[in-house]
Amino acid sequence: MLKSFDVIVVGGGHAGCEAAAAAATLGSSVLLVSMDLSKMAQMSCNPAMGGVAKGQILREIDALGGYSAIITDQSSIQFRMLNRSKGPAMWSPRAQCDRMVFSQAWRDTLETIPNLYLWQDKVVSILHKDGIATGVKTQMGIEITSKTVVLTNGTFLSGLIHIGSVNFGGGRIGESSSEGLTKQLEDLGFESGRMKTGTPVRIDGRTVDYSKLLEQKGEEEERYFSFMTDKKNNLIQRSCFIAETSVDVHDILRTGFQFSPLFQGAIKGIGPRYCPSIEDKLRTFSSKNSHQLFLEPEGEKTYEMYLNGFSSSLPSDIQFSALKSVPGFENVHILRPGYAIEYDYFPPQQLNHTLETKILKNLYFAGQINGTTGYEEAAAQGVVAGINATLKIQGKPHFILGRDEAYIGVLIDDLVTKGVDEPYRMFTSRAEYRILLRQDNADERLTPIGIKLGMVSEARRMAFETKYTKVNKLKALIKKTSILPEEINPFLESVLSKPIDQKRKAIDILLRPEVGLYDIIKASPTLKNNFDELEILKTDITDSVEIHLKYEGYIEREKQIAEKIKRLEYVSIPEDINYDRFQSISIEGRFKLNKTKPINIAQASRIPGVSPSDINVLLVFLGR
């Protein structure tokens, strides 16, 4: 009934949508199989994209030619740049989205991509022959063949939902779980585990007293996630609100601890340390009298709101009673209680850096199946898996990003090399080269790679080249132009900066910490007259130039460090090496090396438990 495909993608979440789009963009015939085609890239948890490190990942996906950032801009109802008080390596964009518009925009986008087909069904097993994946079998009994398969099952593999002492199967509330795949993969030799995540109550916004909450508005300045977006969407912009729990709230929550599946052992899966449930917070931070809650709109028009920080698996009556004691929520009505969900995952050391599994060739894993958490981490893996699935079919070299090239490279290297002992979430602290991996230069780093791969449209290529022509022109202008005291001193005095007494180069003034590029261009006729103001004062261009010039020394130094480390990546390790032969390597080192099978010395050096002396033994063996 269905023809054979180049790539079958299982799951229509963020990873699945990006994987299918990437593979089809590169010319593969793709079938995306999902249990519900009306919920593509569903925002199962909070209705937002980006944040610390996650915003950088989203811009990297966009720079490569992915779609998540574009769709975020189409559905955004609030935009903020986080960590503005810190250096630009820490700046992280975040957007509140209309979750229904977001999902529909993804569906609309997928329908425009040639060679991409949709199928509503549940995959129950992988077809395989001679150690190679050859397709899937669905719940309807249909066998569909393909050259590669990408699994992006999210929280649906043996999903189990917990609310107090009640539990039932489901991938998320109101949707059935997926059974059978885990058992089959285990029979093929895969190791699996259980993880847990949760989601908070959904609030009727009409029943909240906002006068008792702190309003958090978005930025008025026009900023976007995608490098291709140049105008605002037509959606109504919405505010978020901050609330606080109290001792009374905590006391009510504690009365439900005896019914908590988290504390009573009903939940076996490991939960996310950095996004704990409210009951976990009370136990871990028992001395704290309050915790912040963030009330976030689910859309531009709906009154449904998401209460970030109040994730819980306590009985629904306990959740409701505690919530009514939070100032502002005395008369609250909830649309749905919070719940926890357990699901199967596969430890990611079983993957290559391409996200192809080591046990079954032509089978790729992406998203929460690899032990990650978050839409952005999933989408990033989807892009990489979709690209590599197609490159393998086409007989082309694989696609791997280094730790000095992208947060996506850090993410995948961490998963494959270190594994996970809890749901993995990306932070800027996980990257060694944060100054290189900024949100503002994601296109500079990755769009040339996207062009080479064939992921980047002609329109994006031209926009990229036009932007950096302007960036380079402005950098040269700032370095060579001198400014007179009379034109710049009024501005310098206004920002409490020392006036100049003679003509000075613009770059010297810009290097002062209290001076911004946009400001000195506006203040100086000498600079302003060199460019069409509308052309040069575009935020992303001035941001890029200012960061390049102000942090040039730091950037160059970090590049040199990255180059030194990168040389170790050229020292390849044979695939069939048996580390047990090296008695000079520690027992733990031998065990970890045999398990991970690193492809080069750089990866081997990042494996926990492998010491510098172990690496020296390998270098001697390899003639280095």
Describe this structure in words.
With 624 residues, this protein is an alpha+beta fold. It folds into four domains: 5-154 and 177-192 and 346-450, FAD/NAD(P)-binding domain (3-Layer(bba) Sandwich), CATH 3.50.50.60; 198-340, Elongation Factor Tu (Ef-tu), domain 3; 458-557, tRNA uridine 5-carboxymethylaminomethyl modification enzyme MnmG/GidA (Arc Repressor Mutant, subunit A), CATH 1.10.10; 571-621, DNA polymerase, domain 1. Helix content is 36%, strand content 18%. The protein has 22 helices and 21 strands. Strands 10, 11, 12, 13, 14, 15, 16, 17 and 18 form a nine-stranded antiparallel β-sheet that branches. A hairpin with a 2-residue loop joins strand 7 and strand 8 (132-138). It starts with a strand and ends with a helix.
Give a brief rundown of this model.
With 624 residues, the protein is α+β, with helices and mostly antiparallel strands. It starts with a strand and ends with a helix.
Helix/strand class: alpha+beta
Rg from C-alpha positions? 26 Å
Q: Let me know the largest β-sheet.
A: 9 strands, antiparallel
- Could you tell me how far the N terminus lies from the C terminus, measured between alpha carbons in angstroms? 57 Å
What is this structure's SSE topology?
Layout: E1 5-10, H1 14-25, E2 30-34, E3 48-50, H2 54-64, H3 68-75, E4 76-82, E5 92-97, H4 99-112, E6 116-120, E7 123-129, E8 132-138, E9 143-151, E10 160-163, E11 166-169, H5 181-187, E12 193-204, E13 214-216, E14 240-244, H6 247-254, H7 278-284, E15 292-297, E16 304-311, H8 316-323, E17 334-336, E18 339-345, E19 363-365, H9 375-393, H10 407-418, H11 442-453, H12 458-480, E20 482-483, H13 485-494, E21 504-505, H14 506-510, H15 517-523, H16 525-528, H17 533-536, H18 539-550, H19 552-566, H20 587-596, H21 601-605, H22 612-621
Parallel strand pairs: 1-2, 1-9, 2-6, 9-19
Antiparallel strand pairs: 3-5, 4-5, 7-8, 8-9, 10-11, 10-18, 12-16, 12-17, 12-18, 13-14, 14-15, 15-16, 20-21
